[in-house]
Amino acid sequence: MVSEKQSHGAPIPVSLSDIADRCGGELIGESAHVVTRVASIGNATKDSLTFLASPKHIVTAGDTLAGVVLLKPEHQALVSGNKILVDDPYLAYAMVSNLFVHTSADLPQGIHNTACINQSVVLGKSARIGAGVVIENGCVIGEGVMIGHGSVVEAHCHIGDLTHVESSVTLCANSRIGMRCVISPGVVIGSSGFGYAPEGKKWRKIHQLGAVVIGDDVDIGANTTIDRGAIDNTVIGDRVKLDNQIQIAHNVQVGDDTIMAGCVAIAGSAVIGKRCQLGGRASVLGHLTIADDVVLNANAFVSQSIKQAGIYSSMIPVQPIRQWRKTVAHLNRLEKLAASIKKTGK
Amino acid sequence: MVSEKQSHGAPIPVSLSDIADRCGGELIGESAHVVTRVASIGNATKDSLTFLASPKHIVTAGDTLAGVVLLKPEHQALVSGNKILVDDPYLAYAMVSNLFVHTSADLPQGIHNTACINQSVVLGKSARIGAGVVIENGCVIGEGVMIGHGSVVEAHCHIGDLTHVESSVTLCANSRIGMRCVISPGVVIGSSGFGYAPEGKKWRKIHQLGAVVIGDDVDIGANTTIDRGAIDNTVIGDRVKLDNQIQIAHNVQVGDDTIMAGCVAIAGSAVIGKRCQLGGRASVLGHLTIADDVVLNANAFVSQSIKQAGIYSSMIPVQPIRQWRKTVAHLNRLEKLAASIKKTGK
Amino acid sequence: MVSEKQSHGAPIPVSLSDIADRCGGELIGESAHVVTRVASIGNATKDSLTFLASPKHIVTAGDTLAGVVLLKPEHQALVSGNKILVDDPYLAYAMVSNLFVHTSADLPQGIHNTACINQSVVLGKSARIGAGVVIENGCVIGEGVMIGHGSVVEAHCHIGDLTHVESSVTLCANSRIGMRCVISPGVVIGSSGFGYAPEGKKWRKIHQLGAVVIGDDVDIGANTTIDRGAIDNTVIGDRVKLDNQIQIAHNVQVGDDTIMAGCVAIAGSAVIGKRCQLGGRASVLGHLTIADDVVLNANAFVSQSIKQAGIYSSMIPVQPIRQWRKTVAHLNRLEKLAASIKKTGK
Questions:
Q1: C157 and C171 in contact (C-beta within 8 Å)?
Q2: Contact C117 B219 (CB under 8 A)
Q3: Are both A116 and A238 inside the same structural domain?
Q4: Same domain, yes or no, for A122 and A244?
Q5: What is the pLDDT of residues B260-317, one digit of tens each?
Q6: CA-atom Rg of chain A in angstroms
Q7: Which chain B residues touch C112 with a CB distance below 8 Å?
Q8: Are residues C66 and C132 in the same domain?
């Protein structure tokens, strides 16, 4: 057992004036009052920040005990205590939410004495490297980078400034991650693409020679996998946000500002546009192109390229089982049904 | 290389009287006979326990060579050898199955010399901590806890007595796990929820300030992910059983005794009732409520709250491709079909 | 921090005669010319190998700057530079692709000084064992095996000659892997099957006593999970290829030469035939049997056994949301529609 001291911060009091500054709102009330946590509007106490974003909370807003409420100017009369007027309370909350990250897994600056870092690695001075981390030869790790415990960074990876690689991440050889990214635990980047050529009844492996290139300000959720390209690279644009357990196959390209919810799967060589929004478990077949600004609803299944922005859906909601069985039976008889109509119509 | 001695147990002979005691059955036969393994009724030999639970095995039960058979009283005449009479043979088998866990990854008591445990950690005396394990500051680890090789327990986690965290697990900061849980390899608990506020065409991250709270006797399968809450916590009830590769988003609540098969996905803030059964790859959209005792069949897609117990389904089984193409074509022409009927009917 | 030297190879020049030998093709051109990389036909330069496999590249093939092109004899007139004539250019490329793996995570021979290997382990002399690797008692590791950084091999596992276990893999106790397999990062093999017997309103765990047995030449993609059997084993045949994030439940059997794309899920005790091809996110319910040579299209949902080879499908492609809403509404009224037709028809 390797003993060690490590100190994480306690809750930090934040003054209302600091909050107003951060989100650019107009403070009405005690600028020196401090809050230390965030709560929903019904649970908030004197030491809490809250926000009024949903119309359903308007009726109870007057009862809140919050130390301060972020709200729209037109709702200010609802709240008698401290308040900060903003155009978009939810966005304002997003802007100040990081002030309240009071206990984190953030590591102390420096390199843990159990980390294994190849001599050839170029490592930013302010990097924080956790226990058991392995960084292989030829890697370039930027300033302010954090690499959490147990993560593996294979040969010739590049990690941009201020990126956080959390615990238990695997970056395979040659992966390039931009600046200010957050890579969640269990993520695998740069694993072998799934490429085989048929050889009679067997499958001959095609060695995957490309890499993964990820832009700046990208977030990647837990246990998501992104394969390296077959020849060219797999490319994830700037500001892309990927939730948990997403599968991105080899040579996929994802445009800037696209966001994908949990369990999305994108097959090989698909090209996803900019500013797309993919709902949970949406899937896109290989070699398709999805235009910019396409919204795929949850579980949407895309088997042809989509050339026009818009909202697309294909998923059938549940029914009680007896009703559903009838629906399926009728669905399977659709051809007969159509034929009988044709006949009847005559 | 760190050399080490470690010994795991060999198969342990179990006497038929011990088995009968454990499952509360009536033994007919040699109480001193011992068995060392479990087998299906067709493969069983003199050293095997087996059970007769499925009607399809009744015809061959008489031929079994098993050292002992768990069966219902009404089937006792089928078997001439040793038998134990029980009301529910499958449940009785479940009750005795742990007697036959002869080779496991269970660690020896103590802390491996490569583990990194912060000085502030409160650690139960009988804990077993594997190689390369990291436990950050402020954690409280109960009595009899096992933490497998390579697992990371970030700051301020609590793990209840007798819980087994297997190899390669990541518990992010502030996660709370109850007693007697089993967390399988590759699980990530407490990773950042997926929360962004739109800011023009971009996405502004909402820092996720809640935690994950897991009850007692919960099992979590390999590579499952459970995100921490945005403000409040993500909560998993007592005795919940989660299979592999399940995705539980931020602020989800799962009621006691609910069970979910592999690849289920629950979107943010959904509330799942007690004693629900979710089939493989079922999915529930965000902010919905599912009543107690709801059964979702495999691949069921829930897009509205379900207020009543019952069985729900939405998945269409495969057809041969030519037939399926026609079905889809007719489905896409349903509107015209309906219109033509209306016309015909006039 | 443990400092270390490690050297990975630089690009290795490959002569055209070596390439022709490897793929059995006829070289026309400079046999001594060397290339060092692979490129698509449009991006290729003098130092690149490329291939002409897709008809859509025929029109531009004449413009390629490639150092050598793999192509069919009937296309040889299209290319004036060096060329190698082969029957199947894509297969030929697959055969030579491994010559161009110039930067890899391959470890140097030997055992990293931070690895923990139990004294009882039988380890092939030429094995390469990465940093922080744990190998528990009773394991047998073949010749030429690589085990990447941070991987855990629990007790009594067997790993066949020349198999590569990449970084961050977890092999639970008793797993048996054949020869020449590749196990990608984040894979979990041998985790507990999901087995519970109902006990009133609760679930009683059935301890999972089987193991996982994997054949030779099997590839397993990142974050895929394969559970151990309940009593008998989970069995993966020879030359099976599994992509990322696949879930294989307990007691599944997968036949030789079957290939599965990303996110496939196979429920417990299903038996998948030989030479099957499962598209992305296909799923098969428990206890079903799928014949040899079955092709399941992407997202296919199989709820009954398939006894005949062929192509099966069940997934409905997306429509624009307004159109889709109408389709679902009509689908939900199918029963009424059928009834009204019956009436009309009279």
A1: yes
A2: no
A3: yes
A4: yes
A5: 999 999 999 999 999 999 999 999 999 999 999 999 999 999 999 999 999 999 989 9
A6: 26
A7: 1
A8: no
Domain span holding position B79: 14-100
Q: What angle do CA C148, C152, C156 make, to 5 degrees?
A: 120
Task: Give me the number of domains chain C comprises.
Answer: 3
The C-alpha angle with vertex B162 and arms to B157 and B165, in degrees rounded to 5, equals 55
- On whether both B117 and B163 belong to a single domain, the answer is yes
**Residue numbers in B near C197 (CB within 8 A):** 88, 90-91, 93-94
Question: Does a structural domain hold residue C235?
Answer: yes
Q: How many residue contacts between A and C have a Cβ separation below 8 Å?
A: 256
Q: Where is the domain boundary, A100, A122, A151?
A: A100
Rounded to whole angstroms, how far apart are CA atoms B133 and B182? 17
| Cα distance between residue B242 and residue B280, in whole Å | 11
In a domain, B3, yes or no: no
Which CATH number is C215's domain given?
2.160.10.10
Q: Is C328 in the B-facing interface, judged by CB distances under 8 Å?
A: no
Nearest Cα neighbor of B134 from B124, B121, B143 is B121
Residue type, A119: Q
Place of tokens 């809450």: B229
Residue A2 inside a domain? The answer is: no
- Cβ of C326 within 8 Å of Cβ of B317? The answer is no
Same domain assignment for residues B264 and B146: yes
| Domain boundary residue, one of A100, A128, A161 | A100
Q: Please tell me the pTM assigned to this model.
A: 0.94
Residue pLDDT, tens place only, C189-247: 999 999 999 999 899 999 999 999 999 999 999 999 999 999 999 999 999 999 999 99
pLDDT for A27-57, tens place per residue? 999 999 999 999 989 889 999 999 998 888 8
CB interface of A with C, residues 169-198, below 8 Å = 170, 172-174, 186, 188, 191-192, 194-198
- ipTM > 0.90 (yes/no): yes
* Among B205, B314, B344, beta carbon nearest to A318: B314
The tens digit of pLDDT for each residue in B201-235 reads: 899 999 999 999 999 999 999 999 999 999 999 99
CA distance C292 to A202: 14
Q: Could you report the per-residue pLDDT of C14-37, keeping only the tens digit for each?
A: 999 999 999 999 999 999 999 999
Spot the catalytic one: C57, C250, C287, C330. Answer: C250
Interchain CB contact of B325 with A (< 8 Å):
no
Q: Is the pLDDT of residue B32 over 50?
A: yes
Q: Does C149 touch chain A (CB under 8 A)?
A: yes
In this structure, the dihedral spanned by the alpha carbons of residues C72, C78, C83 and C85, taken in order and rounded to 10 degrees, is 20
Distance CA C210, CA C190 (A): 9
C75 in the same domain as C204: no
Instruction: Tell me the DSSP string of C314-331.
Output: --PPPEEHHHHHHHHHHH
Do A90 and A125 lie in one domain? The reply is: no
Residues C299 and C198 in one domain: yes
Residue at A5 is within a domain = no
Q: Which of B245, B234, C153, B264 is nearest to A186 (CA)?
A: B245
Ranges of beta strands (E only) in A200-327 are 202-205, 212-214, 219-220, 225-227, 234-236, 241-242, 247-248, 253-254, 259-260, 265-266, 271-272, 277-278, 283-284, 289-290, 294-296, 301-302, 310-313, 319-320
Report CB contact under 8 Å: C6, A137.
yes
pLDDT in tens, B226-268: 999 999 999 999 999 999 999 999 999 999 999 999 999 999 9
8 A C-beta contact, residue A152 and residue C168:
yes
- Residues A72, A86 contacting (CB under 8 angstroms): yes
Amino acid identity for residue A197 in this structure: A
Looking up residue B57, the CATH number of its domain turns out to be 3.40.1390.10
Contact A213, A190 (CB under 8 A): no
Residues of B annotated as catalytic are 250
pLDDT score of A104: 53
pLDDT of res. C2: 43
